[in-house]
Design goal:
Radius of gyration: 21 Å
Number of domains: 2
CATH class of the largest domain: Alpha Beta
Bound molecules: pyridoxal-5'-phosphate
Number of helices: 14
CATH architecture of the largest domain: 3-Layer(aba) Sandwich
Order of helices and strands: EHHEHEHEHEHEHEEHHHEHEHEEHEH
CATH topology of the largest domain: Aspartate Aminotransferase, domain 2
Strand order of the largest sheet: 1-2-8-7-6-5-3-4
């Protein structure tokens, strides 16, 4: 658990992205935080130390990242993990056997796998709910519900949940609200300000942004919740290493610049695709035809670089992914380079086929992560890849 510096909340987003959580190194004046590649810390005498005892609990490089992302999310406490899944796994350790959690039906495939294939064996109860409709969240609440867990926009169908309404429903039932903000990033959406209690990220994606680190970050406001999460982090030990923390911190410095470009490329790609294959086949909250476009405008400050497209068949999807040159066929998203994937066979392969179809993830669905390249090159690449379709 790392509390932000008191003066890190005042400035604008881009300023905080560059400066929050970091001060020039007091020993040397080094402008960048050192990579404290250490597992332990010397103690002066019994019980006398500088606040650092063992690096699973605390590492100064990790603290810089934790403060930085906490500030970007408008929260007080940050926690950096070794992966997004390590992060949500530690969050779930706030709960116990017999607890009930209401989860979005369309959350990240790995989150579904962790809950459905592992945590269910430990006595956790899950209700999978289509959270586009807030009433369904309210209907799913039980006396033993401890949390509402949601992801918005969802991966890969770009469905939205009204965070403020979901948080109100949870609060009324004394449950907490947990939001996976990986797709939107804190530049476009701040769940804590909408009433959520925990916001978390796969920092592997936009926060780090350069496809060279696996990581996760959580941010909370409440001091008591922060203590409990720090206990889970230190007990489970899925912490971010100093080198990965440092790289991710380098990434977050340019988050505003990058997301602006991802967002404008995403809008352009979505508009081109809608024109090419029809608006109904394109999933992007920035399109006026997206059923939740008004909600997107209300709770987000932009729409981001993720665009999904229904190409109609696996053959069509295969043509596109084998022809692209600027886009690379790969899992993951949110890096500076453009990527494309087929969720049914790649990111969401661990979901049973029948359930996949039920939630709309067909074999013809492609998910594009628009990078920060020149928009002309992205559109030209789509043009040649969709030729003849
Ligand atoms: C990638 C991803 C995760 C999992 O994070 P890892 O860093 O891969 O463990 C969770 N949620 C979303 C939305 C993701 O895209």
């Amino acid at each position: 658990m790392t509390r932000i510096f008191p003066d890190d909340h005042g400035a604008g987003f881009s300023t905080r992205a560059v400066h929050a959580g970091q001060r020039p190194d007091p020993t040397t004046g080094a402008i960048m935080p050192p990579i404290y590649q250490t597992s332990t810390y010397a103690q002066e005498s019994l019980g006398v130390h500088k606040g650092y005892e063992y690096a699973r609990g605390k590492n100064p490089t990790r603290e810089c990242l934790e403060r930085n992302v906490a500030s970007l999310e408008g929260g007080q406490h940050g926690f950096a993990f070794s992966s997004g899944m390590g992060c949500v796994d530690s969050i779930m350790k706030l709960f116990k056997s017999g607890d009930h959690i209401v989860v979005g039906a369309n959350v990240y495939g790995g989150t579904f796998r962790l809950f459905d294939k592992i945590l269910q064996n430990f006595g956790f109860q899950f209700s999978w709910v289509d959270m586009r409709d807030s009433q369904r969240i309210a209907d799913a609440m039980r006396p033993n519900t401890v949390a509402v867990m949601l992801e918005t926009p969802t991966n890969p169908l770009m469905q939205l949940t009204d965070i403020a309404v979901a948080a109100q429903i949870a609060k009324k039932a004394s449950a907490i609200t947990i939001v996976d903000n990986t797709f939107a990033t804190p530049y476009l959406q701040n769940p804590l300000q909408l009433g959520a209690d925990i916001v978390w990220h796969s920092s592997t994606k936009y926060l780090n942004g350069h496809s060279d680190v696996i990581g996760g970050v959580a941010v909370v406001n409440d001091d008591d919740l922060a203590k409990r999460l720090q206990f889970a982090l230190n007990s489970g030990g899925a912490v971010a290493g100093p080198m990965d923390s440092w790289l991710t911190l380098r990434g977050t410095k340019t988050l505003a610049l990058r997301v602006r470009q991802h967002d404008s490329n995403g809008r352009a790609a979505a508009a081109w695709l809608a024109n090419r294959v029809g608006e109904q086949q394109v999933f992007y909250p920035g399109l006026a035809t997206h059923p939740q476009h008004e909600l997107a405008k209300r709770q987000m400050r932009g729409f981001g670089g993720m665009v999904s497209v229904e190409t109609g068949s696996k053959e069509n999807a295969n043509q596109v992914v084998s022809r692209v040159k600027v886009f690379t066929l790969a899992e993951s998203l949110g890096g500076v380079e453009s990527l494309v994937c087929q969720p049914a066979g790649m990111t969401h392969a661990s979901i049973e086929p029948a359930r996949r179809l039920e939630i709309g993830i067909t074999d013809g669905l492609l998910r594009f992560s628009c990078g920060v390249e020149d928009v002309e090159d992205i559109i030209a690449d789509l043009e040649q890849a969709f030729q003849g379709l």
